[in-house]
Amino acid sequence: MMERIVLASQSPRRKQLLEWAEVAFDIIVKETDESYSPSMSITEVPVHIARNKALAVQEELSHDRTILAADTIVVLDGNIIGKPAGREHAVEILTGLSGSRHEVITGVVLRKGSNEIAFADRTEVYFHPLTRSEIEFYIDKYKPYDKAGAYAIQEWIGVVGIKSINGDFYNVMGLPVSRVVRELGRLGEIGG
To answer: Where are the domains of the chain?
Structure first.
């Protein structure tokens, strides 16, 4: 059995997914800079941010432990959609996602000592057209201000508003957990 990993995230969704996968972990989080160079490709951005989270936590540890860090972005028409700044911004974001296709990309970095596995997992999400009253109902009830793209697939809007997805459902929740579990196995072999 693998030792407990370190989850470098306060996300309740990532915590829940690791628990469902029965991966033993401790949570250690360090504030990190989430900026990135405009010259980076969109797929590089969440991996870059996840790597910064992993490295910040790794500096705090007294011995080598496996660290899991992730960052999720929403991409619409080639633009990264972050977390909403407030209610009107959330309405604007969801209005843009309504009736269209967007991508959710989660960058994942696993580190143990100097060994690193980094990847980005991509899922396409298709929304039904949403009315303004549906959007406002969701925002007022669920307050999705801590979520990239202003929504969570496992909440009301995902249940009634998403037409289909192409890719890993759990990636949209914030962690492509089946791939993470497989890569943890690889890192165990790599790291001895």
So the answer is: 5-191
The beta strand positions in 41-168, using DSSP E, are 67-76, 79-81, 101-112, 115-127, 162-166
CA distances from 130 to 1, 97, 161, 162, 192 (A): 46, 9, 7, 10, 51
5-191 folds as Maf protein (3.90.950)
Residue type at 192? G
> pTM to 2 decimals?
0.92
Taking alpha carbons only, the member of 190, 151, 191 closest to residue 174 is 151
Compute the distance between CA of residue 6 and CA of residue 57 in angstroms, rounded to an integer: 9
User: Going by C-beta distance under 8 Å and a sequence separation of 6 or more, which residues neighbour residue 171?
Assistant: 72, 104, 106, 121, 122, 123
How far is it, in rounded angstroms, from Cα 52 to Cα 3?
23
Cα dihedral angle (45, 49, 51, 53), rounded to 10 degrees? -170
Three-class secondary structure assignment of 132-147: HHHHHHHHHHHCCCCC
Read off the pLDDT of residues 4-51 as tens digits, 9 standing for 90 and up.
999 999 999 999 999 999 999 999 999 888 888 989 999 999 999 999
Query: In this predicted model, what pLDDT tens digit does every residue of 96-109 receive, in sequence order?
Result: 999 999 999 999 99
- Residues assigned a catalytic role: 71
Closest CA to 95 of 142, 129, 141: 129
